Amino acid sequence: MANVLISCFVGAFLAPVIHKKAPHWSGILLALIPLSIFIGVLSGVISSANLEPSSSIFFLDGLSRLFVLLISGIGTLIMLYTHGYLRGDIFQGRFMFYMMAFMGSMLGLVMSNHLLLLFIFWELTSFTSYLLIGFNHENEEARSAALQAMLVTVVGGLALLAGIILLADIAGSWYVSDLFSRGEIIRNNELYVPILILIALGAFTKSAQFPFHFWLPGAMQAPTPASAYLHSSTMVKAGVYLLAKMSSILGGTIEWSALLITIGGVTFLLGAIMALGQHILKRLLAYTTVSALGAMVMLIGIGSKYTIKAMIIFLIAHALYKAALFMIAGSLTHETGEKSIDKLGGLRKIMPYTFIGAIIAGLSMGGFPPLVGFVAKEVWLHALGSNTALTIATVIGGIAYVFVGLSIGLKPFIGAVPEKLRAHEAPILMSIGPILLGIGSILMAFFCGFIGSNLVSPAAMTVYGKSFSVELQLWEGFNRYLYISFLTLLLGIFAFRFRLFFLKLGKRLSSFSKFGPEAGYKYLLLGVLGFAAWLTKRLQTGLLRDYIRVIILFAVSLVLVTFWRSGITFEIVDPLWQPQIILLASLMAVAAIAAIFSKSRLGSVLCLGIVGYGVAILFSFYSAPDLAMTQLVIETLTVILIALAFYHLPHKQRPSKIKTRYIDGFISALFGGVMTLLVMASINVDHLTPASDFFLKNSYSEAHGRNIVNVILVDFRALDTLGEITVLLVAALGGFALLKFRPKKKEEI
Predict the structure, then answer these.
(1) Computed over its alpha carbons, how large is the radius of gyration of the chain?
(2) Helix, strand, or coil here: 70?
(3) Which of 32, 142, 365, 703 might form a disulfide with 221, Cβ 3.0–4.6 angstroms?
(4) How far is the C-alpha of 180 from the C-alpha of 187, rounded, in Å?
(5) How far apart are CA 685 and CA 569, in angstroms?
(6) Taking the CB of residue 173, how many other CB atoms lie within 10 A of it?
(7) Using an 8 Å Cβ cutoff, are 13 and 54 in contact?
């Protein structure tokens, strides 16, 4: 399975080269990568049957397999669509690089069996989606939307990291497959609620749940292929995937059900109602995506095997029709230049293939038979049973889905063509995706029994944590659920018939958004930026002295607080009262004071040199000749270098004010006193077993390395080393940028 990820990321890095060498075939060639993954998983060639779950960092269970099929299958169609949509764009190669990297990140997320690896890919999806949303970086709105999505999802990612660390600590394993058997231990632990809240925050931010839903409609600034891919089957469903994966581990409690049902239900209704007030194609779809994600979270929260079954089939149906509708919306805008539904009409004869894909996807979204959307809605209503409140909420949401499905699937293609509208059929590569997804929606409805047994059942079993068979039928006869379904269709058609009324009503409801979470986000961001500007102005004075003061005072504060909380005792060692020690210490103290009040730069440097040489002599007194030699060398070099630096400074520079010197002297004495206390406190510390014994014992047996230093760096301290490499990389990139982007000389301007 690692080969799957390698192929995606290799394809990503080669995408610009492939596009440069074969611009007319690049999208088609890159589409072969997800296509091969789709066929491999579907045929069972790519599986984890021969792997031990507990020892494998990648693992495919029923849920992961379903997501891999959705990611790779829809990804194939999206790459073909991208080739037609961005044909002639000078940055098409770059966009394909972002898309393939995002695809690899999503595949890595759903196949990861290790919690830390899952988190790494989780953050990679946030990073790559940031690049996709902000692809049109010349547009200020695109940049703002990308930053908004990045900040919200990354904050959630930090919460998720804290949650999985606590989860792994309680469970005693970092492997997800091990956690399934330890669910009871985790749920009975006192840290269960904090873990639940932290992991839920990560999932809610990624899947745009209330009150974090606002970033998703803003992300519509991304090019349509990115919107179709991110918001149909991939990024926004990452949170749903995580909650579904954790259902048998963290689920089954009152806290779990209350949190997910409440947040999911509110998101479901809010997204549906907000969709009624939209006339922009992609924003219509965005709010219904928010609603659908809320519905999935709500069904997971209920947690019965029937609601889990409903969630899985709805997830599949939503991925099919929503990806198609996004591509349809992109095709309409691409070929007409219009983004508003109200400015479109009569396109069924001009764009016949687009119309076929649009009407099938729109009807599937509305839950019309015989499409997979109808099957999903029937299973959903069956799962709710006699729960009147949730059934009413489902009907309200269903009305909005019919409204939006007809608005995009039918409204642009009926009536007369507006006078100023100029349109023609989309390229064949842009039409293939919606038509194939439409055919898939029909076939899945007629063969839903086969889909239920081979696709829905394994996924539902993973979520529910117990084995049970899933039976799906296109027609279950006349019953109360069918009547509710047809009532929803009629009310949705009625709402579409009086679309303008509901559009005005939705706009009035949308006006309350200025008091909502998005407004809170903007005020919070402005507050953070304002505080950062104020703090930067106070701390970033441009004087090295001030920076050193802040660092020293902060370090001293931490040490003193530690002393106060720990109750450490201090002990003065008798040898300190030796005459030679007292004499040397007095000389060093006099030299330090002289350095403060000296009016000569060279004099201050020489006084500091006396202090340093005094330290070297102290090392020799206490049988540390190696340290004494090192101190002598370093002190000599330091004195010489500082003297040379001062030599090149302006001679007429005024010396520091006496007040400044007193402050510096006080801070220096405070730091010296704290260091003295640390030395005195260390005398009473019990000496622990040297760490070297552990590394000598385990370097070869556990890490299989004969070079202990290398083993420590790449195995025992791998994350620390990774952090150091990251810091060096960032510094190198910064240095490169400073060297490369130098301002032009005046004579060249």
Answers:
(1) 33
(2) helix
(3) 142
(4) 12
(5) 10
(6) 17
(7) no
Using a 10 angstrom Cβ sphere, with 0-12 exposed, 13-18 middle and 19 or more buried, the burial of residue 637 is: exposed
CA-CA distance, 144 to 270, in Å (whole number)? 23
CB within 8 A of 93, min separation 6: which ones? 15, 16, 17, 18, 19, 20, 26
Tell me, rounded to whole angstroms, the distance of Cα 316 from its chain centroid: 23
Indicate the residue type of 748. Answer: E
Structure tokens at 333: 């805008």
Chain position carrying tokens 């070099």:
637
User: What backbone phi and psi angles, to 5 degrees, belong to 716?
Assistant: -70, -30
Q: How far apart are CA 290 and CA 401, in angstroms?
A: 12
**Tens-place pLDDT, residues 681-704:** 777 666 666 777 788 888 888 878
DSSP track, 198-224: HHHHHHHHHTT-TTSTTHHHHGGGS-H
For 84-98, 396-410, 433-447, 491-505, which range has the lowest pLDDT when averaged over its residues?
491-505
Q: What does the pLDDT look like over 104-130, one tens digit per residue? A: 999 999 999 999 999 999 999 999 999
Compute the distance between CA of residue 182 and CA of residue 485 in angstroms, rounded to an integer. Answer: 40
Per-residue tokens: 723: 């952090």
For the question of whether the overall pTM of this predicted structure is more than 0.90, the answer is no
State the DSSP code for 649. S
Nearest CA-CA partner of 473 in 456, 458, 490, 488: 456
Taking only the tens place, the pLDDT of each residue in 645-667 is 777 777 655 666 777 878 888 88
Q: Tell me how far apart the alpha carbons of residues 713 and 719 are, in angstroms, rounded to a whole number.
A: 9
Q: What is the pLDDT of residue 748?
A: 45
- Give me the numbers of helices (H) and strands (E) for the chain, helices first please: 32, 0
Q: Tokens for 478? A: 């006349």
Q: Contact, 383 vs 464, CB < 8 A? A: no
Q: Is the pLDDT of residue 289 over 70?
A: yes
Query: What is the 3 state secondary structure string of 118-185?
Result: HHHHHHHHHHHHHHHHCCCCCCHHHHHHHHHHHHHHHHHHHHHHHHHHHHHHHHCCCEHHHHHHHHHH
Return the SS3 of 114: strand
User: Under 8 Å CB-to-CB from 476, ≥6 apart: which residues?
Assistant: 378, 482
CA 311/CA 298 separation, integer angstroms: 9
Residue 186, pLDDT above cutoff 50: yes
CA 285 to chain centre: 22
Q: What's the token pair of residue 10?
A: 């290799």
Q: Closest Cα to residue 68, out of 40, 96, 30?
A: 40
CB 264 within 8 A of CB 240: no
Between 372-384 and 305-336, two packed helices, what is the crossing angle to 10 degrees?
Answer: 140
